[in-house]
Amino acid sequence: MNEPSGLAADISRSESAGQAHSALSPYQMHVIIDPPGEARPGDSLIPAPTIVVRFCGHVQEEAVQAQDITNYWAFASLVSEDGRIALAPPSTSLISGRLVGTIREPNDAEDGEVGYARFKDLCIHQPGRFRLRISLMRMPTADSDVSEAAGVLNTGNVVTRVIHVHDGAQVPLLGAEERNILTSLQGRGIIRASNSPSESEDDDA
């Protein structure tokens, strides 16, 4: 099995710390669109997993102002069904697609919203039962309290539902709740509409 290097190595080490760095962030994540419950090997996960980042309930406004959300981004990794074993990384061939998500800020933030991140075109290439673990990563800045030597910091994790990858998986269809969420995000300009019949959104970059 290939060992991660560079940025992937920093992320892998940081992920192993779990929630240890959560006090360093005024933000928390929630999964609002899960990946499909089943998929075929090599097929894109539709709907694209989507998370929302919100302010922690106890955070004071002045504390939030000290940490710009542009220094944060979300990273998706593949873990075992029980969420205890990191699979990719270290593997570089088990999953492909958009593993890094930019936190997109809405123009009309409400209810403590900070932004959204989505993970398009994710494909799992081997059969099995997996979950995605999404980590909110912070890149220390020059005026950060954390030493630059610490590298990328994991400030919190969420996991999706189980994805059963097998050859007999049915083509997924969007549910009513998922369509309503996507329609709302499109209407607020966070994602763009698409002509795709299987998923009503396009590249949100």
Question: What distinguishing features does this structure have?
Answer:
three-stranded antiparallel β-sheet; 3 helices; single chain; 205 residues; 13% helix; disordered C terminus; globular; seven-stranded mixed β-sheet; disordered N terminus; alpha+beta
Measured by DSSP, the beta-strand proportion falls in: 25-35%
Element order: H for helix, E for strand: HEEEHEEEEEEEEEH
**Fraction of residues in helices?**
10-25%
Q: What's the overall average pLDDT, rounded? A: 78
Main sheet, how many strands, which sense, barrel? 7 strands, mixed
- How many strands? 12
Task: Give the N-to-C terminal Cα separation.
Answer: 32 Å
Low-confidence stretches: 1-21, 200-205
Shape: globular
Radius of gyration: 17 Å
Question: Which class do the helix and strand fractions yield?
Answer: alpha+beta
User: What's the total helix number?
Assistant: 3
Explain what you see.
This protein is of the alpha+beta class. It has helices at 6-15, 61-65, 176-187; strands spanning 27-33, 38-39, 50-55, 72-80, 86-88, 95-96, 100-102, 113-118, 123-124, 128-138, 153-159, 163-165. A hairpin with a 5-residue loop joins strand 4 (72-80) and strand 5 (86-88). The chain is globular and about 45 Å long. The model is unreliable at 1-21 and 200-205 (pLDDT under 50).
Would you spell out the secondary-structure blueprint of this structure?
Blueprint: H1 6-15, E1 27-33, E2 38-39, E3 50-55, H2 61-65, E4 72-80, E5 86-88, E6 95-96, E7 100-102, E8 113-118, E9 123-124, E10 128-138, E11 153-159, E12 163-165, H3 176-187
Parallel strand pairs: 2-12
Antiparallel strand pairs: 1-3, 3-8, 4-5, 4-7, 4-10, 6-9, 10-11, 10-12
